[in-house]
Amino acid sequence: MFALMAAAGLWWTAPTLAQMPVPGPLPDVAAALPAVPPDPGDELALEELDLRMTVPVTIAGKGAWPFVIDTGAERTVVSTELAASLGLEPGPFVRVTTMASTLSTPTARIPLLKVSRLSPDLIEAPVYARRFIGAAGMLGLDALQGQRVVIDFDRSNMTLTPARRRMQRAAAPDEIVIVAKSRFGQLIVTDAHWRGKRIAVVIDTGSPVTIANSALLRLAKSSVPIGPVSMIAASGETLVADVHQLDRLEIGGVTFSGVGVAVADVVPFGRFGLADKPALLLGMETLRMFRSVEIDFTNRTIRLALPRNVMTRGTSFAAR
């Protein structure tokens, strides 16, 4: 079987970027959450989890359980604990590409997974321990394809609706609209630059921290690392990287200052054909600089609502 990027999500610890403790054992989410399905409407309340966002998911009418929204993962992932408690039927082993490696991974067959109005067909989800994925599960591209996902940070909710092919609507004065390329269902932004050089950007809501490859760092004549960061992949493997601060990072005509990134040649860069090309996996810490993020997988567009003090293209603002 060919490699599948199933879990881009990471736990991380980085005092230089955010005062966050090393994650310990998680509570029993199955026992802690009420057995009430989410509201059938389009809007879902978001909950924060180590900077990432979760939405309530039901399985075969049971739940709801918090699943991380992971636009950087090709497949939905379920925790070992939840699969066992629901008695999910085991599926085949698959080759899975995580942030750290490619390895053979067991799967569980998830029937009738439902989030908002979305109810994809039977999903064979790779299974990992909850202490490594940091949640009951992760909602990947196999569940999100054909959808329009809007993450509204101002209102702390997510809207998930079927996306239909349509003519591109013009950008509002307070937003960036980017047409992306698709690779393995993942949207790759090419309208991005650093220090005047074109780079590729992948929107990765499953990672709390933005990750740059070493090819991007080589664009700088000199760079001083801020400090180390430790990240734990869904498979339980640990990655250690140096944090650097990027100035003059431009996405869709808007320039950012002071964006912190962890520099690591993680496996997904190779999966996307970006191993030797300057590239970023844009994680939640950076995405939170925007008021909202809209990802339309059908029309291959990404809309980023700018902070209220930045309303036009060609301007710049500092990372918070």
Q: What would you say this structure looks like, in words?
A:
This protein has 320 residues and is mainly beta. It has 2 domains: 4-8 and 29-148, Acid Proteases (Cathepsin D, subunit A, domain 1, Beta Barrel), CATH 2.40.70; 150-163 and 171-318, Acid Proteases (Cathepsin D, subunit A, domain 1). Helix content is 10%, strand content 44%. The protein contains 7 helices and 29 strands. Strand 8 (94-98) and strand 9 (102-105) form a beta hairpin. It starts with a strand and ends with a strand. The model is unreliable at 1-41 and 311-320 (pLDDT under 50).
How would you describe this structure in keywords?
8-stranded mixed beta sheet; 12-stranded mixed beta sheet; disordered N terminus; disordered C terminus; 2 domains; Cathepsin D, subunit A, domain 1
Beta-strand percentage range: 35-45%
Main sheet record: 12 strands, mixed
**Uncertain stretches:** 1-41, 311-320
Write down the domain tally.
2
Structural class: mainly beta
> How many alpha or pi helices?
7
Separation of termini? 42 Å
Anisotropy-based shape: globular
CATH topology tier name of the largest domain: Cathepsin D, subunit A, domain 1
**Number of strand elements:** 29
Which CATH architecture of the largest domain?
A: Beta Barrel
Relative helix content: 10-25%
What would you report as the Rg, rounded to the nearest angstrom? 19 Å
So what's the CATH class of the largest domain?
A: Mainly Beta
CATH superfamily of the largest domain: Acid Proteases
Mean pLDDT rating: 75
